[in-house]
Amino acid sequence: MELNVLETETEPKQRVKRKKSKIKKITKTDYVLAAFMLIVLVVTLYPFLNVLAISLNDATDTARGGLHIFPRIFTLANYQEVFASNGNLILAFQNSVLRTIIGTVLSTFSCAVLAYVISRKQFVFRKAVTIMLTLTMYISGGLIPSFLVIRELGLINNFAVYIIPSLLSAFNVIIIRSFIDDLPDALEESAKIDGASDFTIFLKIIMPLCMPVLATVALFVAVGQWNSWFDTYLYARSNSDLTTLQYELMKIMDNASSMTSNDVNGINSQQMLSRKTTPESIKMAVTVIATVPILLVYPFLQKYFVSGLTLGAVKS
Amino acid sequence: MKMKKIVASFMLTGGFLLAACGNGENSANEGGGEGEPLTLTFFSADLTQDDPFSNPVAEKITEETGINLEISHPVGGDEQAVPLMIASGDYPDMIFAKGDINKMIDAGALIPLDDLIEERGDNLKMLYGDQMDRLRNSLEDPQIYHLGTGGVTNTYNATGGTNQIALKVLKEQGYPEIKTLEDYEKALVDYMAENPTTEDGQDHIGLSLLGSDWRWLITVGNPSGFAGGMQDDGQWHVDEETGDTVYKFQLPETKEYFTWLNHMNDIGLLDPESFTQTYDTYIAKLSSGRVLGLADQDWNYMSAVAALKQEGKDESLWAPLPTTLGEEYVSQSTKDYGFTGTTGISITSSSEYQEEAFDFLDWMASEEAQILVNWGVEGVNYEIVDGERVQTEEDRENSNTNANYNVESGIGAYIWPFPAWGTGAVDSNGQSITRSTREDIVANYTEADKEALEAYGVDLWVDTFPTPEELGSPKHGKAYEYVLPSSSDVAIIQTEADDYTTQKITEAVLASPEDFDTIWEEMQQGLLDMGIDKANAEMTDLTHQRLELWGEE
Amino acid sequence: MESLKAVEAAKEVKQPKLKKAKTKITWKKIKDQKVLILMSLPFVAWLMVFAYTPLFGWIIAFQDYKPQNGFFGSEWVGLKHFIDLFQQPLFYSALKNTLGMGVLGLVFGTLTAIMFALALNEMRFTRFKKLTQTVSYLPHFVSWVVVANIVTQTLSISGIANEVLLSLNLIEAPINFLANPNSFWGIVTGADVWKETGWNAIIYLAAMTSVDQEMYEAAEVDGANRWQKILNITLPAIKPIIVVLMIMNIGNLINIGFEKQMLLGNNIVANKALVIEKYALDYGIGMFRYSFGTAIGIFKSIVSVFLILTFNSIAKKTGQGGLL
């Protein structure tokens, strides 16, 4: 650390120049940090590579254990088995993408609207709405009452069941609100003077400033939408047009696990023995198929996480 | 202008709510007109795969009965499916509710089938014969609400026994008789002394268990009763004479077994990771050929068997043993429990097609149907050679390699949970109704198996066990199949006692031998404090009720 | 340092505005705020329908609920199920474990996520930074089954952990970590940190984007080193979000799930591994004791709400901002 101080001190104090050329000097600390991050990288990459390796390895060989990040006996059999056992995957994938996109856009926007409203200090019902919202994080009527409500609303076997019941998340609203709270008031003050309404201020000023937190919330919502399968099962199973990828994958895993438990008289076990896959290996292939598409979302949102970009852009 | 925007944004969200109310539920029961097959809805609690009921066997069933099934099933281990059905009142026409059947009966969701069986259930009458009483619900309400599955008249050609031992151990010692734990221990000790490591240099492990998760019951809990000559009654033991039912881990036999396990741990023969390893680690260990002894069931370590076979390490595979605490105990592994059809398909009270559904189920119990669901379509899946059904080569190949064989061919897909003939049942020509025979079992043995069996002078591993005839059948079936009255004391005490004994026995087994008795006594006291006596009394009651209901008392 | 102080001072000026919100509902205000009210109305309706209507299900905690009798037809038993619950020794042990692991998870989960976010923020090699960020959130998507397998293998008698310790001569014989009840909470917390740090850091990274770059530049001019910049600029900037997240997570101390405990636990450490949700499953719904299960749910909600209200007022009184 001392080194760092010395270095900055030897630097001529030319503020203007530094401001323009944003290149920062790379010091020893940076290398130490990079080395540390390299360890983090390896340690966090391992479980995923492990899953990938198992999914691409001969299932019987996998049972021997000791598999780390490279397959020993490469095979696509596990994936073939997944795709062969279900003809619905393409439709399911489309529905998943659709619900993820629509759900993410609507939910993020809704959370942002509500967050804006409860961030307005002058709003008369501010406290009431905030409390009402916050409590929903900690209370739940349970599965059966929720089911009955959703059924009464006619949402069964309706695509809207993927969107509406999960429209708001108290957690996300509060995250956005605290981001809004932290924004400088000056901008909207001037907008107010120009006669802009609250809704215009929200759309024109607050939303653009909130891009980093909206990107974060969008990521949370998208991952949640993408991963959910239970709502498909509960509310849309009798309409196969509404099936989703995670639901179909869940069924494949169910079926894979049941291969071992339905043994009646040693006959099925023979069937099992001649299979090319095991439930464990199928699960790994399913994990990869289920995860990779949603992983692609993050790098796309990452550009919003660059420090100072948004603020600077709006200010100038 | 501003207002318009706001309104527009609300339309966006509110509009969805409105749109949502439009679509109703799609109705299931369509058709039923002249020549059109009638579609019945059916929920199967055990199915794990979508079945569109469109395979050749299903088509044949529809052709014969005029019934088409729309089948649904729980996904992702959902246990709320039936409670949800009850709460919302949406029942299918037929349901296999499994353990939830009592809730359905309480809710008035199922119709009694007695009269229907009497009037139009000839095939079912023939199937159940004198076992019909075993379908009855309870003493207070002795009607029949379900058609029991699981097969009437079964034979058993395979068993896991109490313990298993690697074939190479038997071979080296000249295929000795292993009847007691003492023999078993000696065989392991002697072999370990001669061969501390495998051929590729890994240490041998004497006895490995999987006591870290629910499989504790399979590899630790159950063998203690089996070794004591008890049949599989779960965590209970039923006295055949008196019907007295007690919690198994209160008995001296189980204590003796765990004393032995404690001793095995003490002399270093028990795998020290037995109670901490995960299933995957356990399978990996077994697959390496290092593990000489097990106390498991074959379905639990199938993937290890596959791995060893693939590597040609047939001699590291395991043979099932009827081991007991001593000569005076008899292993019950090959016991014929009789027809215990406590679960099966029911017809719901809300169905508009109760009689049609019943006729369908009755047809499923006919000889014609049973041959169809077990063997498939003649000329495709089997051929008649010299008056006998013979599976085609093509079909055998398909059944061994196609993961979706059951649903695609339809063979085996409609046996469970429908009314079914058992593995011991024969058709009117005297041929087995199911496809599993002794020959099939033998065909799957390895050379190492066959060599060992030849040395013992038998054909099948089950032949080294007592015969089912010697063992007789229990009058009460299996205690773990009793339906415990929900939220009764016995259900709660049982769960508490299971959690508690699992921990305490694990602690006792891993303790040093001089501490074993203290921990065991502590556990006995703990069980008493939990009110185990009350649970024993209630279970004894349930046993008597069942005996009376089944007409055995 | 001067310019830094100036920036701080600028922030101070902002403060008083926060406090002027004295709300007294008058028709005039409602008229003035019709846009805000209209904006919130659909969502309030949503909350009523989807979050509050299902709460009628809570009444079964005060009944001996039987599905066939419906929600309103079962026998009323008052607080029987709550009294029953408070008499169970297992419940207290589950409560203790839940709160214990909850607190450890909260403390270490928050600390590591903040530290990781700060470290990422400080990284200069842009591409490597992006790569690390993307990779670090991967374990979030790997199921607990897989993570538990890796953890138990690493810590087993023949695992890497023991190999390393043995080769460094730190221990003489391999330790069976998984057989030690006292290390169970630590193992769970460690596994959780490993799996979720990258994911949890995302929020803090987003919050850090709001820091004005000029403040860093001003601080540099004043000769501030990295540590000083982190302590005086970055951390204060993300403090509001830290406080809000802390309070929300404190409310969730009792809702820590049970999957990881179940998968990492075994029968030796069972006493330290039983958590409330597993207890509710095994002794409530799992046994069809819907009323008892619902009573546990209500108890959890009450604890959560009590916790957030308490910590919210502490945060407010100490001037750290707050949630409500």
Q: Strand tally of chain B, please? A: 13
Low-confidence stretches of chain B: 1-33
How are the strands of the largest sheet of chain B arranged?
2-1-3-11-4
Strand content of chain C is: under 5%
How confident overall, as mean pLDDT of chain B? 89
The helix content of chain C is: 55-70%
Describe this structure in words.
- The complex is a heterotrimer of chains A (316), B (553) and C (324).
- Chain A has helices at 2-10, 15-20, 28-55, 59-62, 77-84, 89-119, 126-135, 143-152, 170-181, 186-193, 198-209, 211-227, 230-236, 245-261, 267-273, 279-295, 297-301, 309-315.
- Chain A folds into two domains: 2-52, no CATH class; 76-315, MetI-like fold, CATH 1.10.3720.
- With 316 residues, chain A is an all-alpha fold.
- Chain A has 18 helices and no strands.
- Chain A is flat, with a radius of gyration of 26 Å.
- The model of chain A is unreliable at 1-21, 261-267 and 308-316 (pLDDT under 50).
- Chain B folds into two domains: 38-154 and 340-409, 3-Layer(aba) Sandwich (D-Maltodextrin-Binding Protein, domain 2); 163-332 and 482-549, Periplasmic binding protein-like II (D-Maltodextrin-Binding Protein, domain 2), CATH 3.40.190.10.
- Chain B is 42% helix and 9% strand.
- Chain B has 22 helices and 13 strands.
- In chain B, the strands form four sheets. A five-stranded mixed sheet of chain B has the order 2-1-3-11-4. A four-stranded mixed sheet of chain B has the order 6-9-5-10, sandwiched between helices. Chain B has a two-stranded antiparallel ribbon with strand order 7-8.
- In chain B, α9 (216-227) packs across α10 and α20 (489-510) packs antiparallel against α21 (513-529).
- The longest helix of chain B is centred in the C-terminal third of the chain and has 22 residues, at 489-510.
- The model of chain B is unreliable at 1-33 (pLDDT under 50).
- Chain C has 324 residues and is mainly α.
- In chain C, 69% of the residues lie in helices and 1% in strands.
- Chain C contains 16 helices and two strands.
- In chain C, strands 1-2 form a two-stranded antiparallel ribbon.
- In chain C, α1 (2-19) runs antiparallel to α11, α6 (89-122) packs across α10 and α10 (184-208) crosses α12 (226-251).
- Mean pLDDT of chain C is 88; it is low at 1-21.
- Classes of the chains: A mainly alpha (316), B alpha/beta (553), C mainly alpha (324).
- At the A-C interface, α1, α2, α3, α6 and α7 of A face α1, α3, α6, α7 and α8 of C.
